[in-house]
């Protein structure tokens, strides 16, 4: 879609922004209040570009770089809508999901950071593309490489590998059959990466998921909802540093 055609679609039904209101690089937390937290605590000269459906979006500057941040909601259908519109109607080139995930490996501890190479999936989102086979959803190597370098410099406890994207937060306790995702080395589970990686690939944009472990079946500690919203600042700093 060329620029003139894209402008005809803005504002969109979901994003009340004009062309130019959103930076080419954006952070995408699921929780809109986390977007608000980032805008208030990390960005300067902030303007709000969206509040439609309560999905807060802001643009500002981080160390001189123009960056946007907006919530996406939960699940592939929600982030699928927002990432598609950001790429095709607002010209966003770099999209970094920052969110939480549940550990699937004992060595992946609470508050560890996951830099997701690929998104294994249980969702049906990819069916919308009518591909002739199974598509491997992967991150932008450019963003992934920068994230690993920055994580090293920041001395963060991090892991690089595959994650699982699922539609169901709560699942019935069924008997195990066959090989599990954990058996295949999948590090953690979340709910948005497949749609983001697929939309970015189709839209010729860069995408990466950076996640903080908020839940683990291998540890007794739990992190509160408020803690999830406000405390994962190291992950936020990492994401801001690479775009």
Question: What key attributes describe this structure?
Answer:
243 residues, glycosyltransferase, five-stranded mixed barrel, transferase, alpha/beta, 29% helix
Describe the structure.
- This protein is an alpha/beta fold and 243 residues long.
- The chain contains seven helices and ten strands.
- Strands 5-9-8-6-10 form a five-stranded mixed beta barrel.
- The radius of gyration is 17 Å and the shape is globular.
- Catalyzes the reversible phosphorolytic breakdown of the N-glycosidic bond in the beta-(deoxy)ribonucleoside molecules, with the formation of the corresponding free purine bases and pentose-1-phosphate.
- This is Purine nucleoside phosphorylase DeoD-type.
Average predicted confidence as pLDDT = 93
Number of helices: 7
Supply Rg.
17 Å
Give unreliable regions as ranges: none
Largest sheet: 5 strands, mixed, barrel
Indicate the percent of residues in helices: 25-40%
Strand content: 25-35%
Class by helix and strand content? alpha/beta
**Which strand order do you get reading across the main beta sheet?**
5-9-8-6-10
Order of helices and strands: HEHEEEHEEEHEEHEHH
Q: How many beta-strand segments?
A: 10
Q: Name the shape in a single word.
A: globular
Distance separating the two termini: 24 Å
